[in-house]
Amino acid sequence: MADTITLYNHTVKLLGAGEVDLTALVVSLISSSGTFDATDTAWADVSANEVSGNGWTAGGEAVTSAAVTTITTNDAKLDGDDISVTATGGNIGPASYAVLRDTANDKLLAWIAFDTAQTAGTGTPFLITWNASGIITWTYT
Question: Where are the domains of the chain?
């Protein structure tokens, strides 16, 4: 089984309307106590189950070089650099989930369910590696 990314109900509308600040995207880690609700919209809806510390920044790690580009005439994708944070002074995690969010507009964009809970031990990187096809792809019809 692979990690899965599920969009919140408003995500494609926000991206399609240009209402996402691509310079303010972060990934925040979530414990096994977190649950996905497609109608959630804001960080406060999921933040109680945040996992941070030992190198992973509270509030999330930046998605650098985020951009929306055209795939074909009717398709677009959101992509950005992979994230790698080395654990220092203890473990990062365990985290069972993560959320992609726009901190400038306080909008949740995607819920990421890891195949299994992820932990990075001291000196080891916690990695978020995006699919080569992009973080999110969508089609205009």
Answer: 4-135
